[in-house]
Amino acid sequence: MSAESEDRAGGEAHHEGEPRLDLDEFGDRVERPDGNVRRDAEERRARTGLARGALGQLDELGGWLAAAQGRVPVTPVERPRLVVFAADHGIARLDVSGRPPGSTAALVRAALEGASPAAVLARRAGVPLRVVDVAVDCDAGELPADVTRHRVRRSSGRVDIEDALSTEEAERAFRAGMAVADEEADAGTDVVALGDLSVGGTTTAGILIAALCGTDASVVTGRGGTGIDDLTWMRKCAAIRDGLRRARPVLGDQMGLLATSGGADLAAMTGFLLQCAVRRTPVVLDGVVSAAAALVAQRVAFRAPDWWLAGHRSGEPGQARALDRMGLDPLVEHGVCVGGGAGALLALPLVRAAAALAAELPEVVPEVPSETGTAGGRSEAVDVT
């Protein structure tokens, strides 16, 4: 079996009689981006004639992309994709969101119709949008078949009093995310902007982040993208507090944690992030939900965060905690908190600009003195790679 076939093997759908997923294997399968290539990229950058630090953050991104691609010069980012996982959460029945429980289907339809903020940004940037329904609370027939083909169930359990998913459902969602990552890698996607669409998702994400960071509910409870009032914030904080009591006993079992206190979207995004790292596909994270999934994925494979960028700072305190734990610094900070991948898309132009500069800035041939002692040559810009 080829190395690429081995990489894809873990993402195949779970069949009856197939061995359970061994998450420990990701620790061996996920490798860091190539540090030697990054050094080569830095040396090439030094030969462009631009002063050190003149490009600021773009230099850092260019080196990161070179290491991720394993080549110098970098290939420009030409095939990005916005991938959005969608699900409802049972915890929304506690009125912890500004949206009614079970209304994720409307968010999905808006995205598919090009009417959501992220869909508008994606269209203007020429970035294809893919929505993956793993647990939207509607009949599957209400959404396109290509959106629902990875669906695990409708909504999830109320995580303050019951498990979000069964262990089997959590594994199915995880494998679905892996399969989507493989599909994107096989299609030639060079950078993924990762988003989510959910109602109650930031509450569930808060539980996971508080549990994994060892902090209290109030520290991670934000107001979400709907700008909830004080009373709703108090209900959300109480829900996270109650969910934490159920999450802490399963902290040593990441699949068990996703089943107990996560949801199908979080499980799928965790599988997606890990398999993207295996397949060497860079990912730009969006808000607190993708950050929570990334934090779980980091517990599975500690090298995986080297393949991700934090797109933006959403203002959610839980996101800030998670990114700090993973050592990821947001690329932009515009106060955007609408979700759906909008923040990741706002950061994508920086990534594309860094790739273009690292790919296309020519190296400078130094002037060579003539035989008479004067400068007999000119400084020319040529690409020597």
Question: What features would you describe in this structure?
Answer:
The protein contains 16 helices and 7 strands. The protein is of the alpha/beta class and 385 residues long. A 5-stranded parallel sheet has the order 2-1-3-4-5, sandwiched between helices. A two-stranded antiparallel sheet has the order 6-7. Helix 14 links the parallel strand 4 and strand 5. Helix 9 (201-213) packs across helix 11, helix 13 packs across helix 14 (288-300) and helix 14 packs parallel to helix 15 (317-326). The longest helix has 20 residues, at 167-186.
Give a short account of the largest sheet: 5 strands, parallel
- Report the average pLDDT across residues: 91
Shape designation: globular
The number of helical elements comes to 16
Structural class based on helices, strands and sheet pairing? alpha/beta
Low-confidence segments: 1-6, 8-15, 373-385
Name the assembly state: single chain
Distance between the termini: 33 Å
Over the alpha carbons, how many angstroms does the gyration radius reach? 22 Å
The helix fraction, in percent, is 40-55%
**How do the helices and strands follow one another from N- to C-terminus?**
HHHHEHHEHHEHHHHHEHEHHEE
The number of E-state strands comes to 7
Give the arrangement of secondary structure elements:
Elements (H helix, E strand, L loop, with lengths): L2 H7 L15 H5 L5 H12 L10 H13 L10 E9 L15 H9 L4 H9 L3 E7 L9 H4 L18 H20 L4 E9 L1 H13 L3 H4 L9 H18 L6 H8 L2 H15 L4 E3 L2 H13 L7 E3 L6 H10 L15 H19 L2 E3 L14 E3 L3
Parallel strand pairs: 1-2, 1-3, 3-4, 4-5
Antiparallel strand pairs: 6-7
